[in-house]
Amino acid sequence: MVQVLIFIAFIIVYVLYLWSTYTLLIKYVNKLKDERFIENELLIIIPNLFLFAALFIVGHFFNLSLVLLSIAFSNIGMLIAFIIWGLLGSPRVPYKAVGGWAGYNFSLKNLWFNLATQAISVLMLVVYPVIIGIHYFSASSQGDLSLFTLKCTLILILGSYFLMLPIIMSILGANFIDEDSRSRYLISQFSNLIPYSLFISLLFWIFNWGSSGKVIALQSLSISFNPLLFTVLIVFFLAFFLLPYFIGIQRAKQLKNDYFDFKNSVLDDLIESIDLATPKNIIPRLEHTQRLIQQKYAELKDGDAIIDAGLRYDDPDIAGKLPQQEVFIYNCYKSARPFDKRFVYFDFLDKVYIKINELKEELTTETNAATNKETLETYSVYFKDRKKELHDINEKSAGSNPVLWIGITALASPFISQLMTEVGKYLLEYFKKG
Fold this sequence. Notes:
Layout: H1 2-30, H2 37-59, H3 64-88, H4 95-109, H5 111-136, H6 142-172, H7 179-207, E1 214-218, E2 221-225, H8 227-275, H9 282-301, H10 305-313, H11 324-336, H12 341-365, H13 369-399, H14 403-433
Helix pairs in contact: 1-2, 2-3, 3-7, 3-14, 4-6, 4-7, 4-11, 5-6, 6-7, 6-8, 7-8, 7-14, 8-9, 8-12, 8-13, 8-14, 9-12
């Protein structure tokens, strides 16, 4: 009977762990533009307390040092992220909203994969207490139960993390987000990797992977260098974070150049049409440019449901009519829209198209040749100014590339993670002896 009550207590604490994590995470992501220290700390501390409480109830082990170490690793990750953000400069880019919108892009375009990932995540959360329960009531010794509980918990934590990697990689590799958001998202993922390095080191300890390593002694301090763990960390960071990041940079450059070339071509065509205008050819040439813009409209929207979704969110009356589960995506879109290359491009095409209509209307309603000449000169100046702005923006964006600090982060990350895991190793050895 006591065993049953203990297991029921474990289930209650486990449910509270899931509920607290979900609630705090929703509150965190809904504050797209704010970075508040207290909320960040609560998101770290409360789930950790519930998780280790659940492990204590069913596994009968608890160590305050391990709890504090887990919390400390997360805070060290945040501290490193803030330092690197400071070195990059800190423009007010809503990188969380940009990341949320880019993640929604991936989910919408890979609907079945997204549903499968969610189903696996839910299955893991449901199966975890069932497997723990089966072993709890059949374990031959308390030591065996403790070790088995720790193994299952690590598999749950790291398994859930791995299921998020496709979305993380898609965000880092997205060609439509701005580079400031991309770099800040990479740094945030790096900071998240630091606390997970503790769980990775626990996994290595439990399964005795790469236990023999080179010991580096500095007077009374000794650090054992684990080549396997170091290799895993560096390959993990390179494959899942840094490689998608640089692929995203190149894809974004290509998309930006494609958009720039067409925008520049349209403006050149309009300027030439106006400067060489005659009463007979000006309207046909303007309509020809409009047809080119319409083709680009079609190419932009062709088979891309996300463009239609974004344009639907542009309707000012839609905000109050959205279902609750769609409000977060809507908020992400509204914050991320000015940084989405596709919608910036769409706005440019739309403005030029409307401006051409205005010019056609003025030319067709006015019969005075002198007035029409002045109108054409005015529009010529307008489009030449837009062309200058276009080139200025393109040159400015080409100069803002934080690759240097991202490279430093890439080089430093495995060393930092290795060092942090060694801190955990000494505590784990204490566990092992105890």
